[in-house]
Amino acid sequence: MLTKDGCTQRVANFWTRVPREFSWALIGDPRHVQYFCDFRPNPISFSADQKSLLLLEREGGATLLADNFTRRTAITDPHVTREIVVPWYTHKKSVINRDHALAIALDEVSDVWTSGEGLVEGEGVSFALADHLRSHMRTEFPQDGRALTVGSLIRDLRRCKLPDEVALLKTCMRAGAAGHAAAFAATAAGQTELDVYLAIQQACQREVGTAAIVYGDFRSTNAERHKAGGLPTNNVLQDGDLLILDFSVILDGYRSDFTNTIAVGTPSEAQVKQFEACEAALSAAACVLKAGARGADVYEAASAQFLQRGYPALAHHCGHGLGMEHPEPPILVPESTDVLRAGDVVTIEPGLYVEGVGGMRFEHNYLVTESGAEQLSDHRIALV
After folding, report:
1. Taking a C-beta distance cutoff of 8 angstroms, is the pair 22, 14 a contact?
2. Cα 109 → chain centroid
3. Strand 53-57 versus strand 62-67 pairing type
4. Residue 85, SS3?
């Protein structure tokens, strides 16, 4: 979970970037509501996709607006100064449009949004709700000589992970490492991709003691099919296959994302050479990571290892930022204009896909610092 101190700091960071003329801000993207107050409906519940709002006041107030069923499925109690909970469903009366319940909640806090000019996260608040506040709000503001939206500002702030976010990401990674360990035992000729996925999913959830979302690539490749991705199938694994396991574990809205590729049976000489190239590319890219490094340079460091060994250049991104979305900045590709910052959490994931041999990818997650990077994931990278 996100801590009260962390949420308080994130709100303070937000107001530091917003001109003084604005006294309140209405946040509607579920990720950003959580980012500032740790409120998020349980993603494995009947209210998983329902909306809430967060009304921030420059002078320190934070009000959560939600219907009663959305509020009751919260993962944790929010770090707010007050809550406006509208009784949408009471088991006694017919229900109204659930989004309209938030309009009722907004009316109950009109004392805030009629007392000064405010900002609305246009990317996260519906037109119908924004129309309630039309004469008192704006959706963008000038910064550095350009117009900036609320959503863009928050996404930029999200790049610098605070300690409570890093702790949550480490928990996600601990779950992922347990899944990768289970995969070695589960991968064998005669098993299906789905069999291995189920073993991974169970191990991840047992490690953290709670239900969690586990998604990603769980697909086998081989000499005839050298590239594949997506959710697992009932395809039966055969000797000579390479099983790519690139998955994320989501806990409280944050996610891990790292990969291993397991050989079914004894890997061939060509597969071992391919693995060694990927391992070298991963290590070379990780050495470039530090605040101020260009995303394009990280990509080039990995790709150069492939070219030196006679393979084609890295065919996809070298990696990307990690946190509440997948992917998020910085993006590590040849034409990236992104520059790494201290506090970025990134993934490095070089992969090679060779016709007549198969495909493989290996990946670790890192916290970027001023002088380098801290490796956060610790799963065993190996073919067997």
Report:
1. no
2. 32
3. antiparallel
4. strand
* Terminal Cα distance for the chain, rounded: 35
Q: Give the ranges where the chain is alpha helix by DSSP (H).
A: 4-17, 30-37, 68-72, 98-108, 110-113, 127-130, 150-158, 163-186, 193-208, 269-288, 295-308
Picking from 205, 236, 231, the residue whose alpha carbon sits closest to that of residue 218 is 231
**Number of C-beta neighbours around residue 199 at 10 A:** 18
Helix (H, G, I), strand (E, B) or coil at 272: helix
Superfamily of domain 163-375 in CATH is Creatinase/methionine aminopeptidase superfamily (3.90.230.10)
pTM of the model as a whole: 0.94
> In the beta sheet, which residues pair with residue 249?
214
The class (CATH top level) of 4-158 is alpha beta
**How far is the C-alpha of 261 from the C-alpha of 362, rounded, in Å?**
7
Tens of pLDDT, residue by residue, the chain (384 residues): 999 999 999 999 999 999 999 999 999 999 999 999 999 999 988 888 899 999 999 999 999 999 999 999 998 899 999 999 999 988 888 888 888 899 999 999 999 999 889 999 999 999 888 888 887 888 888 887 778 899 999 999 999 999 999 999 999 999 999 999 999 999 999 999 999 999 999 999 999 999 999 999 999 999 999 999 999 999 999 999 999 999 999 999 999 999 999 999 999 999 999 999 999 999 999 999 999 999 999 999 999 999 999 999 999 999 999 999 999 999 999 999 999 999 999 999 999 999 999 999 999 999 999 999 999 999 999 999
3-class SS of residue 135:
helix
Distance of CA 281 to the CA centre of its chain: 24
Residue 61: how many other CB atoms lie within 10 Å: 14
- What is Dmax (Cα atoms) for the chain? 72
Domain ranges, ordered by start, for the chain: 4-158, 163-375
Question: Exposed, middle or buried, 259 (CB in 10 Å: 0-12/13-18/19+)?
Answer: buried
The pair of structure tokens assigned to 342 is 């201290």
Residues 6 or more apart from 215 whose CB is under 8 A from it? 231, 247, 248, 250
Q: Which residues contact 248 (CB under 8 A, 6 or more apart)?
A: 172, 176, 214, 215, 216, 255, 256, 257, 326
* Cα separation, 199 vs 131, whole angstroms: 49
